[in-house]
Amino acid sequence: xxxxxxxxxxxxxxxxxxxxxxxxxxxxxxxxxxxxxxxxxxxxxxxxxxxxxxxxxxxxxxxxxxxxxxxxxxxxxxxxxxxxxxxxxxxxxxxxxxxxxxxxxxxxxxxxxxxxxxxxxxxxxxxxxxxxxxxxxxxxxxxxxxxxxxxxxxxxxxxxxxxxxxxxxxxxxxxxxxxxxxxxxxxxxxxxxxxxxxxxxxxxxxxxxxxxxxxxxxxxxxxxxxxxxxxxxxxxxxxxxxxxxxxxxxxxxxxxxxxxxxxxxxxxxxxxxxxxxxxxxxxxxxxxxxxxxxxxxxxxxxxxxxxxxxxxxxxxxxxxxxxxxxxxxxxxxxxxxxxxxxxxxxxxxxxxxxxxxxxxxxxxxxxxxxxxxxxxxxxxxxxxxxxxxxxxxxxxxxxxxxxxxxxxxxxxxxxxxxxxxx
Length: 422
Ligand SMILES: CC(=O)N[C@H]1[C@@H](OP(=O)(O)OP(=O)(O)OC[C@H]2O[C@@H](n3ccc(=O)[nH]c3=O)[C@H](O)[C@@H]2O)O[C@H](CO)[C@@H](O)[C@@H]1O
Ligand SMILES: C=C(OP(=O)(O)O)C(=O)O
Description:
By secondary structure, the protein is α/β, with parallel strands linked by helices. The chain has two domains: 1-17 and 232-417, UDP-n-acetylglucosamine1-carboxyvinyl-transferase, Chain, CATH 3.65.10.10; 20-228, Enolpyruvate transferase domain (UDP-n-acetylglucosamine1-carboxyvinyl-transferase, Chain, Alpha-beta prism), CATH 3.65.10. Helix content is 29%, strand content 26%. The protein has 14 helices and 24 strands. The chain has helices spanning 22-28, 48-59, 87-90, 100-107, 126-133, 166-176, 192-203, 235-248, 263-271, 310-317, 337-343, 373-385, 396-399, 405-410; strands at 3-7, 12-17, 39-42, 63-67, 72-76, 84-85, 109-113, 138-142, 145-149, 158-160, 182-186, 207-209, 215-219, 227-230, 250-255, 275-278, 282-287, 297-298, 323-327, 347-351, 354-358, 367-369, 389-393, 415-419. Strands 22-23-1-24 form a four-stranded mixed sheet. Strands 2-15-17-16 form a four-stranded mixed sheet, with helices on one face. β8 and β9 (145-149) form a beta hairpin. α1 (22-28) runs parallel beside α7 (192-203) and α5 packs parallel to α6. The structure holds uridine-diphosphate-N-acetylglucosamine and phosphoenolpyruvate. Residues 23, 93-95, 308, 373-374, 401 line the site of phosphoenolpyruvate. InterPro entries: Enolpyruvate_Tfrase_dom, Enolpyruvate_Tfrase_sf, MurA_subfamily, RNA3'P_cycl/enolpyr_Trfase_a/b, UDP_GlcNAc_COvinyl_MurA.
């Protein structure tokens, strides 16, 4: 298994291009299952999760062709010949459950393995299933698989999500585009990835209103056509790289960055004393002098502070002036980076969903273990500002969500290299 070695090397200067969003691309790709005409996605990120979704779609009979080094994905589902999403693929990535709604809506049947829990929490899919049931789906859970049927096709319905779920909103939204009649999704997720999905579905001929608000209304249509759609910028990759100069000092412009994608996060950076400026090309972040101030963070659904940036923000707080309280409200077990940061000298106290971080002057490099995607990158960020060498082991998690991380950080002056495992 590969490791990443990072050595503290002073302030960072330069530009980092931000890729298309993993979490948008992972929901846009299954949208191909709604149509027998081609769907072309541009600005796709080159990540192992995208390969996993490619393998899953191909296992169903869809065609997925990578062009321009993987930045363009040409998808087609005109030859769908298998409606069973196998456990061996689904278990690798939770977003695999997103094939359920589209397959069921188009062909009236689908069998999809339950994805199971993961390091950050139990992550059930009950809301995906309940939303589909509200559209008339008949579901049966057997031997770890969801067996779904809608013999006469899905029918429009009303579903109010008891808690906000990004994935369940995506599954229901896709399914509703081909249901007969009107579907209303209440307390829907408002994440930019949902808005991007709605834009793509509309290009394919879907009738959708209200994306980006808590109520999405979908008027079902008989069929969807093809489309070409650019994947929205990755707000989590953006936030991660904005934190690099915040932690190390210096000035970095994140190309393609947009404040509307990371508003609550920018507010927290500014509260901590970091400057964020909108430029023609993106967002420029600088920390020219002075200490970072400790700030409190509560993770919430969009437009709140994203859970996917909590670990990276904790890395910043480790050397801030004062004490910060980070409250994780989305996932029940998302502080696995804390003990690893403590190996680097951080002072962190975790109680349930709350972590209290007391800032120290400087972290010290250490061998650490990456436990999940965002934990991995938080350790890299911490290592960039630490004294000496930090070896981040088990970085396969990192490759799920960050393309060419060594190159992107190396180009702005970071001392970072990948060591290939045996
Ligand atoms: C591929 C993708 O887009 N992943 C993102 C997506 O995950 P994902 O779509 O899995 O996250 P959800 O928004 O669904 O999860 C929010 C909360 O709802 C719970 N829940 C969810 C579904 C369900 O059927 N029942 C249920 O109880 C979850 O366990 C969690 O506690 O949104 C999360 C929250 O912003 C992000 O951290 C993930 O990076
Ligand atoms: C939790 C994440 O992804 P996933 O939902 O695919 O596990 C993430 O992107 O931080």
